Amino acid sequence: MPDTVTTPDPVQPATVAIDGPAGSGKSSVSKQVARMLGYGFLDTGAAYRALAWHVLARGDDTADADAVTGALDTFDYAISLDPDDHWVRVGDTFVTAEIREPRVTAAVSGVARVSRAREHVTALFRALVAASGVPGVVVEGRDITTVVFPDAPVRILLTAAPEVRAARRSAELTGEDAAAVAEALHRRDASDAQVVDFLTAAPGVVVVDSTDLDFDRTVDAVIDVVRTATGEN
Ligand code: DC
């Protein structure tokens, strides 16, 4: 009988999955939680934005599902998981700031609607976390608790009342008309919600409502959920 050689599974990072709509504080809260836990931070919306940027750079329209699918083959995507050193790259081009431009924000929902694109970036997210080399990663997006990491030990839906989300978003985008910001946010939420239900918690997902919490208290509330779920105090 030959000896059986068993290779231990590489240790998988602990995943903290956080979903929620724009303006819930998801991105800044997730980043701070990652810092406090010594974890990596993965902003999954950045991949959808970077893919939208890539489709536009090819001269295509993100409303054209075939064009979006056709762009996947040449979508060479990289992102930093370091919460203190954020960058996003497509091919040789750093697009960290460009993917936040209004023209990309306006185009990104089209990309997020294409199921082949969703499958493609979901595979990227799992690979990025598996190769992260850190003890854990806070992953934030819209379908992280349900599709990307449904088995994560910690799954959170971060919500806030719509008017509070709109007010936070317009405070971030100084110089833009508050009513126009609120309208754009609601339009994008409505469009995104047709693809992924990020306003209702799936079974087992803990809701953290930040409507009446300031930033620090929201971070504390999320850390409490992580500690309770992982048995740390
Ligand atoms: O969070 P954000 O605004 O950067 O997200 C950009 C777009 O990507 C937004 O239209 C929703 C979509 N998205 C998604 O469908 N699934 C994710 N996991 C993350 C973002």
Uncertain spans, ≥5 residues at pLDDT below 50?
none
Mean pLDDT: 91
Describe the main β-sheet briefly: 5 strands, parallel
CATH fold descriptor of the largest domain: Rossmann fold
Number of helical stretches of at least 4 residues: 9
CATH architecture group name of the largest domain: 3-Layer(aba) Sandwich
What is the assigned CATH homologous superfamily of the largest domain? P-loop containing nucleotide triphosphate hydrolases
CATH class category of the largest domain: Alpha Beta
Strand content: 5-15%
- Ligands: 2'-deoxycytidine-5'-monophosphate
Rg computed from alpha carbons, rounded to a whole number of angstroms: 18 Å
Give a count of the beta strands, DSSP E runs of length 2 or more: 8
Molecular structure report:
The protein is of the alpha/beta class and about 230 residues long. The protein folds into two domains: about 15-40 and about 135-233, P-loop containing nucleotide triphosphate hydrolases (Rossmann fold); about 45-135, 3-Layer(aba) Sandwich (Rossmann fold), CATH 3.40.50.300. Helices cover about 45% and strands about 15% of the residues. The chain has nine helices and eight strands. It has a five-stranded parallel sheet with strand order 2-6-1-7-8. Strands 3-4-5 form a three-stranded antiparallel sheet, with helices on one face. Helix 1 crosses helix 9 (about 215-230). The model has no long low-confidence stretch (mean pLDDT about 90).
